[in-house]
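Predict the 3D structure for this chain.
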Amino acid sequence: MASGVLNDEGFWLIGVKDSDSKILDDKTLLECHRKELIGHESSKEILNAINLNLDNIINDLKKNNFSLDKPPRGISFNIPLNYVENIFDFWLDKYKNKEIWQICIGLLKIRQRVSLNNLINSESIKGDSKKWAMEIENLHDYKPNSLKKNSLNEPMWK
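Done. Predicted structure below.
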């Protein structure tokens, strides 16, 4: 996970690289925030979970008329570093236990369609699944300060 700048626009980049030289050769990257040495297949699974989590956040924001800048690549700088790091760390940690990983991935896929809060509040899930559902829901709580510009009323005359 790194931060970068391209055409004077900042972005977060989370990806899989098979050598440090590829990272060092990328002149758009400024600073590395997380670097983990794990197998290629494992890293692809973790990256897919991170991307689904971020897609869920972006889709929720669009539904609620919040605006995010469209970066030239990667993830918008509008999402603060601590949110991106929390998502990264959560999925990396859960991957260490296959049973927990499977539960969390299932919950993340459900979260893609509906809020997990309804399941949590209705007691539809219990025990560890409920605990993981609450954590996954917390990973989705980012809301920017500004609404979309196009959601504001246009002036009646100019």
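The helical segments are 20-25, 40-63, 81-94, 98-113, 116-121, 127-138.
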